[in-house]
Amino acid sequence: AALTVRFLTRRFIGEYGDMEFIYSHNLTVDGREILFHIWDVPSSQEHAEDGSSEEKRIQWADSFVLVYSICDRASFNILPLKIQFIKAAKEGQSQEKVPIVIVGNKRDLHHQRVVSSEEGRLLALSLDCGFYEVSAAE
């Protein structure tokens, strides 16, 4: 949620509840107006749901940004399974590659890092995804 709000408003808010939100945002990219719809789901909520809710989100979306904390190994370790689930659901229907980006957040907390940048890059490479490391706070 912090990364989504930072993208939408350029402000950082550190604490969020476990709420699911759909945001809409207009952005000009290469001279074209693009309307983004962002379905932001906290990972704690995803763990408590059945697969049909996750399947609904996957069918709704055109692309995916999966965010993990560089300070939380469990948030990183769940990514391969999530990406396989997304690809099976989206690419099984068509031959088009589904755009997926893996984002390691909290780069500013390097002293608490438990997942290296190299691990993130290698995971993204092995799963044919994009990769970035960012700090929503900075």
Give an overview of the whole structure.
The protein has 138 residues and is an alpha/beta fold. It has one domain: P-loop containing nucleotide triphosphate hydrolases (Rossmann fold), CATH 3.40.50. The protein has six helices and five strands; from the N terminus they run αββααβααβαβ. The chain has helices at 2-9, 43-48, 51-60, 73-77, 79-91, 117-126; strands at 21-29, 32-40, 64-69, 100-105, 130-133. The strands form two sheets. It has a three-stranded parallel beta sheet. It has a two-stranded antiparallel sheet with strand order 1-2. β1 and β2 (32-40) form a beta hairpin. The longest helix has 13 residues, at 79-91.
Strand content: 15-25%
Shape: globular
Q: CATH-wise, what's the superfamily? A: P-loop containing nucleotide triphosphate hydrolases
Estimated radius of gyration = 15 Å
Order of adjacent strands in the largest pleated sheet? 3-4-5
EC number: 3.6.5.2
Organism: Dicrurus megarhynchus
GO molecular function, one term: G protein activity
Catalytic activity: GTP + H2O = GDP + phosphate + H(+)
In short:
The protein has 138 residues and is of the alpha/beta class. It contains six helices and five strands; from the N terminus they run H-E-E-H-H-E-H-H-E-H-E.
Features of this protein?
138 residues; alpha/beta; EC 3.6.5.2; Rossmann fold; globular; G protein activity; Ras-related_GTPase; three-stranded parallel sheet; Small_GTPase; small monomeric GTPase
